Amino acid sequence: MKLVKTRQELADIVTQWHREGETIGVVPTMGSLHNGHLALIKALDGKATRRIVTIFVNPIQFNNPDDFHLYPRGLDADAAILTETGMVDVLYAPDETQIYPPGFSTRVIVSGLDAMLCGADRPGHFDGVATIVTKLFMQTRADIAAFGEKDFQQLSIIRRMVQDLDLPTTILPVPTVREADQLALSSRNKRLTAAQRARAAHLPASLLTCLAELKAGKNTDACLQTCREELEEAGFTVHYLDLRSGTSLQVAQPSDPAARLFVAASLGDVRLIDNMPLS
């Protein structure tokens, strides 16, 4: 695996790959890698002949400066993990000058899908996500990109952006990877104290109970209210808890075959998200 830190070096590599008829897969990350990221890399098996993992903690997608500064980082450890997999050809780890040079003033905005759920809770977040993903697609010239379903709204926005802008990158969704207690893997989990990590298991457990009750035909509003109360009793601050369509992200009824339960909730200053399909 080659560590690349500049646009020019990356451009030279991907130009040569395309000349040789290679197909390029990319996994964009902010580092602090875990098994969920490795699942994204593995998902490119048979779909790309070359694989790039990007690591860049994107400042413009953080509406809270403290969250940006506290985000876990560790390039050397991440590089060692990727090298050990034997699956990655290039680790692209640019600094901010390679992504946002002086005078940079453009944003990519996906209107509509960005105004709900995490978008309502974190103004401007998805503008930052759409902008950095577009930049990384252009710099890597990827044929295919893998994204996890854990951040389902992000996945939906990127799909919409690729379609609307005619970007030549296929989006590959990958199911959420979970711990033994069903907590969705996330780099933010590393910021949880031992006590918070134990309480965090209430998040997936409460969602699964709520889904079971919805499937049993119980009233949607009552199920959501009970789930919210259970999370609050466990020490969570609930930002949102909604049943939404997995196709439009609009509020859904249990009869919708694409219905998913979406949640964002914090333990202390650590914000966790999850979603699960009803069917």
Written overview of the protein:
It is built from 11 helices and 9 strands. The chain folds into 2 domains: 2-174, Rossmann fold (3-Layer(aba) Sandwich), CATH 3.40.50; 187-277, Pantoate--beta-alanine Ligase, Chain: A,domain 2, CATH 3.30.1300.10. It has a 6-stranded parallel sheet with strand order 1-4-3-2-5-6, sandwiched between helices. The protein has a 3-stranded antiparallel sheet with strand order 7-8-9, covered by helices on one side. The chain has helices at residues 7-19, 35-42, 65-70, 75-85, 96-99, 118-121, 125-140, 152-165, 194-200, 202-215, 220-233; strands at residues 2-4, 24-29, 50-55, 90-92, 144-148, 170-174, 237-245, 259-267, 270-277. Strand 5, helix 8 (152-165) and strand 6 form a beta-alpha-beta unit. Helix 7 packs across helix 8 (152-165) and helix 10 (202-215) packs antiparallel against helix 11 (220-233). With 279 residues, it is of the alpha/beta class.
Question: What topology does this entry show?
Answer:
Layout: E1 2-4, H1 7-19, E2 24-29, H2 35-42, E3 50-55, H3 65-70, H4 75-85, E4 90-92, H5 96-99, H6 118-121, H7 125-140, E5 144-148, H8 152-165, E6 170-174, H9 194-200, H10 202-215, H11 220-233, E7 237-245, E8 259-267, E9 270-277
Parallel strand pairs: 1-4, 2-3, 2-5, 3-4, 5-6
Antiparallel strand pairs: 7-8, 8-9
Helix pairs in contact: 7-8, 10-11
Catalytic activity: (R)-pantoate + beta-alanine + ATP = (R)-pantothenate + AMP + diphosphate + H(+)
Protein name: Pantothenate synthetase
Binding site for ATP: 30-37, 148-151, 177, 185-188
